[in-house]
Design goal:
This protein has a single domain, classed as Rossmann fold. It is 33% helix and 15% strand. Helix 4 crosses helix 6. The longest helix has 15 residues. The radius of gyration is 18 Å and the shape is globular.
Length: 242
């Protein structure tokens, strides 16, 4: 127990830490919020995956560069990497993290992101890391921006500049989850604004978010960043739908 503060020790006694996915008791004093069994059940996306949007491409498909949807083009971002598919244990963790305000789960999510990035993302080409912003009303209600809590430690691990006040969500939009693809695109149009553009000028920006659905939000952010002088915009998300 020697590295655990007395306060944490008492909090652990009162509220023994439990796995954010299966609720099993965890070993006290460890930063992990997911038990080893659940962590092992999470599969990182492995190649082949789409070189534009990161969706896994089934092995029986001959052409493995781009998925059917990305062949049409028209994206402002360069590419998106995704760590995992939003299902099973992963979906439970994200829901706990985001909607039940279990911020400490960011620790485990960042571990997964680092593992994926070390295998697949050329981090040496990235200049600046940004989190996809939330509208301040939503951030206030949720008490934190879930993207920021993973983007900052991720950037720190790779010694990258992390900028907070570059993108702001200025238009309050309805939750994306109930909308169709075209409604989502309309829903996010003109909802972000760029500040402190000197932070992005001529730089390769990596946008970080927790979940990717259609990519409409990332595309909108990328459009604004490119218009503001960014050299290239890529994105990295913890989990994506398929
Ligand atoms: Zn578990
Ligand atoms: Zn694709």
């Amino acid at each position: 127990m020697n590295h655990v503060s007395p306060l944490l020790f008492f909090l652990d006694l009162l509220y023994p830490p439990r796995c954010g996915a299966c609720n099993r008791l965890l070993t006290s004093g460890m930063p992990n919020q997911i038990c080893p069994r659940c962590m092992q059940a999470i599969q990182l996306i492995y190649p082949p995956f789409c070189k534009k949007c990161g969706v896994p491409i089934p092995n029986n498909i001959k052409y493995k560069e781009l998925c059917g949807r990305c062949k049409k083009g028209g994206h402002s971002f360069d590419r998106i990497w995704s760590c995992t598919v939003y299902e099973g244990v992963m979906a439970r963790i994200i829901r706990q993290y985001k909607y039940h305000k279990k911020r400490l789960l960011s620790h485990d999510l960042v571990q997964l992101m680092i593992r994926f990035a070390e295998m697949h993302i050329p981090m040496k080409d990235v200049d600046v890391v940004l989190a996809v912003p939330l509208h301040r009303k939503k951030e206030y209600a949720r008490t934190f921006n879930q993207a920021e809590y993973i983007a900052r430690p991720f950037a720190q691990y790779f010694n990258k500049i992390y900028c907070r006040d570059v993108l702001r969500k200025v238009r309050y939009t309805e939750s994306q989850s109930m909308l169709t693809k075209s409604e989502r695109t309309r829903n996010v149009t003109a909802s972000f604004r760029l500040y402190n553009r000197h932070n992005v000028a001529q730089r390769h920006i990596l946008l970080v978010d927790d979940v990717l659905t259609t990519g409409a939000t990332i595309n909108e952010c990328a459009k604004i960043l490119i218009a503001g002088g960014a050299k290239k915009v890529s994105a990295f998300v913890v989990s994506r739908g398929i």
